[in-house]
Amino acid sequence: MNFAMRWLSLLVLVASIYTLIIGRIYKNIPISVISTIFTINFEDEAGQRVQFDRKQLLRANQTNVTAYFFSARPTSDNGIVVENSISGNVFCHGRDIKDSLEWFGTEKKGFEIIHNFGRSLPYAWYMPLIPIWILNRESKLLFGFIRSHIMTRRVTIRYENEFNNTRPTMKMLAGTYSQHNITIILNFHKDNPPTSVKAIRIKENGVLEVGLEEESPSCYKLYLPELRNEILRLSWVPDANKRAISSGLVQAITENKYKVD
Question: Which domain of life is it from (predicted)?
């Protein structure tokens, strides 16, 4: 009996210490990103229109988390973020959530976007205690009391004239929050795949090259277990010949050299 009580007391002590440590860790991190999937689709051969679809799994680490903040900004001289392309939705098992998006900025300078959940993100004291790797799986494999506290968030944004240049790049900034389990799928136009694609992680002054998986000549995939306080930079080399043909055709149409039915 005394032996069992000693073990029980030890377990209670360990659990209490673990809870205190987790509470300390998440004191200034109200929300955790369990996973993010970026699907980037090049809608035309010249790369003039590119759509970003983002799917995230979110967990609240505190009460009263009512929205998610992010930004979308062009970096090239002619690039814009198409305002009427911004859309999104959220889903949480067993809960009725009416979300909305509000944004501030311009197409040329970009937008700061707030995804309002319409209510507090579902929270339970035990959720921050569960490791991310357990939560990052199909929802049907999770217990209901866990599944009902994970929110799925989707957002779509389209860029125009941002990546149809001689040195196209994409930059994704990860701040204080750890972004876990990031998957990026680059779907280039099948008629104009790049000659090469490169990914690097920039941490202060250090640069780390990241390997990409070539699914096909026009599709590349990248997975990272975590990003935090760093920049992920993607760049590629367009096919110069095809780009010249596409640019010439666009210019010819603009100058009405050809009749387009």
Answer: Bacteria
User: For residue 114, what are the contacts with CB-CB under 8 A and spacing of at least 6?
Assistant: 67, 68, 69, 101, 102, 103
Residue 75 CB partners (closer than 8 Å, separation 6+): 162, 169, 171
The residues spanned by each domain of the chain are 25-254
Tokens of 151: 């929110």
| Most confident of the ranges 24-33, 122-131, 241-250 | 122-131
Quote the distance between the C-alpha of residue 141 and its chain's center: 23
The CATH code for residues 25-254 is 2.60.40
pLDDT digits (tens, 9 = 90+) for 125-157: 899 889 999 999 988 889 999 999 999 999 999
CB-count burial class (<10 Å; 0-12, 13-18, 19+) for 46: buried
In angstroms, rounded to a whole number, what is the distance separating the alpha carbons of residues 210 and 191?
Answer: 26
